[in-house]
Amino acid sequence: MGKGGALSEGVVRKIVLSYTYVAIWIFLSFTVIVYNKYILDRKMYNWPYPISLTMIHMSFCSSLAYLLVRVFKAVEPVTMSWDLYLRSVVPIGLLYSLSLWLSNSAYIYLSVSFIQMLKALMPVAVYSIGVMFKKEGFRSETMANMVSISVGVAIAAFGEAKFDSWGVMLQLGAVAFEATRLVMIQILLTSKGITLNPITSLYYVAPCCLAFLFIPWVLVEFPSLKENSSFHFDYAIFASNSFCAFALNLAVFLLVGKTSALTMNVAGVVKDWLLIAFSWSVIKDTVTPVNLFGYGLAFLGVAYYNHSKLQAMKAKEAQKKVQQTDEEAGRLLEERGTENSGDSKRDVPQD
Fold it and tell me: Which of 28, 21, 29, 8 is closest to 263 using CA atoms?
């Protein structure tokens, strides 16, 4: 095959790899959500201790991250002072621990399908908090889109057959803390030129989460676990669940590193629909027509939001290319001007 054929083959390989990364991420994210629901739900495995489950995940992930960073040297650690760690990583760790605690707690009270519908509010929360902290500019068009997503989620909540107000409060709290964490990463780390991939994030943040979760665990869950002497720790269940959680972080690293964060957002919408279908068909959760109509409206809002972000990224890339072209053209003109100046000096007759 000619040069064009080789190029086409390379493009096809790149597309296949991108879809493979997306499929791996969707599968692992799907598995972790369903697995957590299975463990925490009182009608399934019946181990309703979300703080303990989150602490098991954080212990497992921080241990593996330490091995990968310090022992096997698979990932380079980020140069970070104690002052920067305390001012930047610790607040992010606090927000992350609260987000995980509340989101895992919501599985006890709400169906998987309804939780995914409520998670559609994430762009609304991120944009609102970004505007509040002046990381995003207020635009009436974007705000109208956020309102449409919110209305869609509200309709889905109105149509929920097993609505639980406490579960909804927990999930909305998880969304709020996670959105704040994402904005804080931009303010506290990215603005300082520090970027953490999922492995280094776990290396620095997971031990911090573990420390923050220990206090509510001692007060809330430890007394109950102490009384429940009939429970025997199932290493196969919790080790495999924790490994899936860690593998999901690796999948995020692959997906974002090889494609983009926007690709993960779009793939997340596909995953949500798959989870809703699974929740209805396999777990036998009730999904009403009003649920689907409301989430469909929210889905259209999220799809438009992702489309707008993609257009903004393309415009930014095009502007960057124009600037690079202008800089190169200016450099060439400057070099030619210098050469012409040198030639003129050589042409001047000497007395």
Answer: 21
